[in-house]
Amino acid sequence: MHSLMRKEEIDQILSPGGAMEAFEAAKKAGKCRFIGFTGHYDPDVHTAMLKAYPSWDSVLMPVHAADHAYLSFEKSPLPVAAEIGIGVQAIKVFCKAFLLRSLSPNECLRYTLSQPVHVAICGAGTQGQMEDNVRIAQSFKPMTASEIDDVRKRAIVGQGVYTGPTLEYWKRPATIRSER
Asked: Strands, DSSP E only, in the chain?
């Protein structure tokens, strides 16, 4: 299920005759091995979806060093997914490159991989950037709690006017309630 944004979509997906019936039938027939959902708009919707159907195989969500400061996926759905044991795919590791203004690629990727995720999907504009990402992952050592705190602070302070919805423009505006 791609790009969930609103809680009403949960009922549409999980109700009788909804999309989940088709996905479960496809899985039973051997046409797919895993069922997951994605989104980056509203962490409350992710949390509600995880609680409504805890049998997901996978979930894709933003996990990066600035996430904690605005409508955090790291604070809400990520712990739920980890507790249930669902495969977590992290996106927006570099925050669409905005974090590279104040953090190194190494810090961004190490931060994300230090969270309870199974994979970090990294963007790369060049082969060299991809090779750097691979090297960082191959030599990965989890960040300490003090390193995480430091990176979180610098991720926000280093952005200047780019914070909250300006930095994470893919998330719902704070003025729009998730109950829509």
From this structure: 36-38, 58-62, 87-91, 119-120
Give 62's strand partners: 91
Q: Nearest Cα to 108, choosing from 148, 68, 163?
A: 148
Residue pLDDT, tens place only, 91-105 = 999 998 989 989 999
d(CA 1, CA 46): 12
Domains and CATH numbers, the chain: 8-159 (3.20.20.100)
> If pLDDT is split at 50, 70 and 90, which confidence band does 123 have?
confident
Instruction: Kindly list the distances between the CA atom of residue 102 and the CA atoms of 40, 54, 147, 155, in Å, as whole numbers in the listed order.
Output: 22, 37, 14, 6
The answer to whether the CB of 170 falls within 8 A of the CB of 61 is: no
Q: Does residue 164 contact residue 69 with C-beta atoms inside 8 Å?
A: yes
Q: Which value, to the nearest 10 degrees, does the dihedral of the CA atoms of residues 24, 28, 29, 31 take?
A: 60
